[in-house]
Amino acid sequence: MNAKDVPHQGSFRSSLYLFIILMIIWLVLTNSLKTEELLSGLIISLLLTHFLSANYRELGLPRLRLKRAANFIAYVFVLLSEIIKANFDVAYRVLHPKMPIRPGIIIIKTSLKQDIAKVILANSITLTPGTFTLDIKDDALLIHWINVKSEEEGEAAKRISERFEKYLKVVFE
Amino acid sequence: MKKGVSIILLLILLWGVVAALSEMPFGKAKLEVAGHYTDYGKEDTGAANIVTSVVLGYRGFDTLGEVTVLFLACIGLAVVLSTLKKQGCGARQTPSLILNTGFRFLFPLILLFGTYVFMHGHLSPGGGFQGGAVIASGFVLMYLSVPKIKRLNHFVSTLFESVGGLIFLVIGLIGLKLGSQYFLNNFLPNGEFNTLLSAGIIPVIYIAIGFKVGSELSKIIDVLLEESE
């Protein structure tokens, strides 16, 4: 369900998400469990959550479920392995004397609904060398590809976005 | 002939460099002041970060000058730009979904990071100026990504700016009154070394500077943007 259709539903959930993310980052930055550090982190996180939770309400973050969390962790590992693979592929194209590239811009469609899911997908595509997301318009992603293997929409989506999308779909739907 | 002259010139130059360098003691402190900072900075100011102990402990008065320079730059920019005639610069492109959603997700995290940087200026690299700059970068992201620009609340930003500057001055004056008769004297206890509540007045001043610099830099961006519209 799109979060924009129901502006007030899940406002507590998004505040909680924001607060937990802020607290985790504070703990990682300070790297200590002393009372004064925890207390100051708590105060700052609460203040920021109070003033800025509206930002998170429109992101469309889903309820936390074990299946979603497991899929998200799996997605992170898939992303890392795809980045490594794509690095080797681009290095091969750069070092090859004939430089076998076929650059071009293609459009692929995504079935993801939430803004945050689309942005994560777009950033995953950008992070893997060789593909780069230029823009998102509704459900279409504009992608620059170093070696266009297929101009056809479905085929391109299969090669570029499907490997990420199947995990993100479970996480966000 | 030409070659010979240039070689002779090169040798003279080389001799000059070698002569100058050989006079300098290698691996020893060249300035006594710097030696004092590194040897006694910990006891004198209680700050784990030596740079901070110099910037706010030994040379706090200097820093007050720097804060004033930034303040004047901000005012000057606003005054100069307000005299110019406003002219439109064409339609603004609506920001893409990636930028807009990225802003929503990252903005609180950027503010948290900026706050961390200026609160821990006496413990780790960074401080009020750096933390303030991080916070202002968050506001730049806001201006780029929100289609209808939410104007910075001028009252709030001026309030932060003025209160930050005042806290700096008042703490300096309290030190002048209480301690051994010098400006920015550290009158608060140094506390346990390398914890958040240590180094006396340094974290208090850095928090004030963080708010001041953050609101000032955001205001500069706001003024420039206003001009371009």
Topology:
The complex is a heterodimer of chains A (173) and B (229).
Chain A: H1 11-30, H2 35-57, H3 66-95, E1 104-109, H4 115-127, E2 131-137, E3 140-145, H5 153-160, H6 162-172
Antiparallel strand pairs in A: 1-3, 2-3
Helix pairs in contact in A: 1-2, 3-6, 4-6
Chain B: H1 2-23, H2 32-45, H3 50-58, H4 60-83, H5 97-119, H6 128-145, H7 154-178, H8 202-228
The total count of strands of chain A amounts to 3
* Overall structural domain count of chain A: 2
Q: What are the low-pLDDT stretches of chain A, counting only 5+ consecutive residues below 50? A: 1-7
Low-confidence stretches of chain B: none
**Percent in helix of chain B:** over 70%
Distance between the termini of chain A: 8 Å
- In angstroms, what separates the terminal alpha carbons of chain B? 65 Å
The number of helical runs of chain B is 8
| Shape field of chain A | elongated
Mean pLDDT of chain B: 81
Residue share in β-strands of chain A: 5-15%
Label the structural class of chain B.
mainly alpha
Task: Describe what is shown at a glance.
The complex is a heterodimer of chains A (173) and B (229). Chain A has 173 residues and is mainly α.
Overall description:
The complex is a heterodimer of chains A (173) and B (229). By secondary structure, chain A is mostly helical. Chain A folds into 2 domains: 11-57; 66-172, no CATH class. Chain A has helices at residues 11-30, 35-57, 66-95, 115-127, 153-160, 162-172; strands spanning 104-109, 131-137, 140-145. Chain B has 229 residues and is mostly helical. Helices cover 71% and strands 0% of the residues of chain B. In chain B, helix 4 (60-83) packs parallel to helix 8, helix 6 (128-145) packs parallel to helix 8 and helix 7 packs antiparallel against helix 8. Chain A binds chain B through residues 18, 21-22, 25-26, 29-30, 34, 36-37, 40, 44-45, 48-49, 52, 55-56, 58-59, 115-116, 118-119, 122-123, 133, 135-137, and chain B through 96-98, 100-105, 107-109, 111-113, 115-116, 119-120, 195-197.
